[in-house]
Amino acid sequence: MKSAHDIIIRPVLTEKSYDNMAAKTYTFIVDKKASKTEVRQAVEEIFGVKVDSVNTVNNLGKMKRQGLHQGRRPSTKKAYVKLKKDSKGIEFFDSIAQ
After folding, report:
1. Where exactly are the structural domains of the chain?
2. Backbone phi, then psi, for 6, in 5-degree steps?
3. Cα-atom radius of gyration of the chain, to the nearest Å?
4. Backbone torsions φ then ψ of 8, nearest 5 degrees
5. pLDDT tens series, the chain, 98 aa
6. In CATH, what is the architecture of 4-85?
7. Of 49, 56, 67, 98, which has the highest C-beta tally within 10 A?
8. Is the pTM higher than 0.85?
């Protein structure tokens, strides 16, 4: 069994993710093998919030080339976590967004 910190790799800090924070939706890069249930439990454990829903997206790594050689950047999995209306926000994001 993986710990919560192994499932949640890092937050996504982009303009789109900042816009979603007003609706209590936060974006994370998560482990590629993690299920929605595991992501939900990890976020609730780490940040002490109540999760309403989790949506995930698998992103294929971009093709890159160096001369004749080509390969891919690593693939990632992104999770959009929506909190319940009565739940407090995630302090880490709130301090950055201001």
Report:
1. 4-85
2. -80, -30
3. 15
4. -85, 110
5. 688 999 999 999 999 999 999 899 999 999 999 999 999 999 999 999 999 999 999 999 999 999 999 999 999 999 999 999 888 888 777 676 65
6. 2-Layer Sandwich (3.30)
7. 49
8. yes
Look at the block and give the residue holding tokens 């950047």. Answer: 73
Structure tokens at 36: 């929605």
Residue type for position 65: R
What single-letter amino acid sits at 91? Answer: E
